[in-house]
Amino acid sequence: MNAKLLPHLVTREWFLAASLVTSAIFLIFGHSLLSRLDVLWWLGFVFAWLFLVILGSALAVVRHADQLARRLGEPYGTLILTLSITSIEVVSISAIMLHGANNPTLARDTLFAVTMIVLNGMVGLSLLMGGWRHREQHYNLQGANAYLGVIIPLGVLALVLPNFTVSTPGPVLSFPQEMFLAVISVGLYIAFLALQTRRHRAYFRSDDEVEFSAGTGSGAKDIAWHALLLAVYMVPVIYLAEQLAPPVDYVVETMNAPAALAGLTMAVLVATPEAIGAVRAAGENHLQRSVNIFLGSVLSTTGLTIPAILVVSHLTHHPVMLGLQHTDLLLFLLTLTLCMVTFSSGRTHVLQGIVHLILFVSYLFFIFFG
Asked: What interhelical angle do 287-300 and 207-214 show, nearest 10?
């Protein structure tokens, strides 16, 4: 290893050691560490330990994806970020879904929580901070419309339509319906990627973003270095996400916490790193980068996570319920409608951020008082 590279690795990537050490501890002593969850303070300690290490590692993934974005330019950097976070999301949901008693609504609650965190919490904070600092911000309207043109039909097909099908009782889909949903979701996502990375790349870049990307270019060695570290950080994240399943499962099943709380926990874990990146970009007046992050995050959730969870469900014989119920259904439809209004002019301001944040607070309120 280059002598100049070692000090940089120690000072900038010290959290990798913490992540690897934690993984080793749970690999060797995991059974005994997770056998005392009935002790409240130990439950809190183990949960906080795992949650913070996973979150810190996920933030490192975002940091290296951001560096790749600066060197490769949009939309490739954001695409790398969303695919990385989607991998964490699928593993986290699958781990909890397969642990303990079956929770058929976990996938739905997590996907809904991700949508609310991103389209209301993340969008609200980004627009509020950006509007507060820069009064009015601009983004590429064609790109936002392309995102929403795929997000809205996939979201409704996955989380609303199951309430109205008649082939199976309740808010569930039959096997042919689930496979149809999985195929069209992946197909639409691939079609969108073709548009985003080839035919209409300009839709997802603004003049400011082009200059921003071009001004920070670097060599192939830097790109390879950040790609390697991104992959290295992903390994302990995926492993530790599986170890987080028992504490979360214990809280929901044994302590009778709201079932949606498990989904919210997983959603916070996977959405927080992207939220930090989106809010930071908006504060630096790179709103197009923010738009690509939060809309790309929801698109990858509906286009990739849902099909992956459906496949895992059938392979492991753990059924999932996708249809949203009661207040969740109304909040989801209201959120999609509000997004169509917010991203209809190519400009944003503070009031739009405030309205999105109020919807996010409403979502949190109705988890406990629904």
From this structure: 90
The range of the structural domain enclosing residue 315 comes to 7-369
Q: Number of folded domains in the chain?
A: 1
89-103, 113-127, 140-154, 272-286: segment of lowest average pLDDT:
89-103
The residue behind tokens 């983004």 is 139
Q: How many helices (H) and strands (E) does the chain have?
A: 15, 2
pLDDT at 254: 73
Q: Which of 280, 283, 302 is nearest to 147 (CA)?
A: 302
Going from the C-alpha of 202 to that of each of 79, 141, 195, 209, 299, the distances in angstroms are 15, 11, 10, 10, 19
Amino acid at 302: T
Give the E-state strand segments of the chain in sequence order.
Answer: 137-138, 347-348
pLDDT tens profile 12-71:
778 888 888 999 998 888 888 888 888 888 888 998 999 899 888 888 887 887 777 777
Average pLDDT score over residue span 259-272: 78
The model's pLDDT over 94-103, given as tens digits with 9 standing for 90+, comes to: 776 666 556 6
Phi, psi of 347 (to 5 degrees): -135, 150
Read off the CATH number of the domain in which 155 is found.
1.20.1420.30
Q: Is the dihedral of CA 291, 308, 94, 156 positive or negative?
A: positive
Q: How far apart are CA 30 and CA 24, in angstroms?
A: 9
Using only C-alpha atoms, the chain has a radius of gyration, in whole angstroms, of 20
Burial of 51 (0-12, 13-18, 19+ CB in 10 A): middle
2 is a domain residue: no
Q: Around 144, how many Cα atoms within 13 Å sit in the side-chain half-sphere?
A: 24
Sign of the dihedral through C-alpha 5, 49, 363, 174: positive
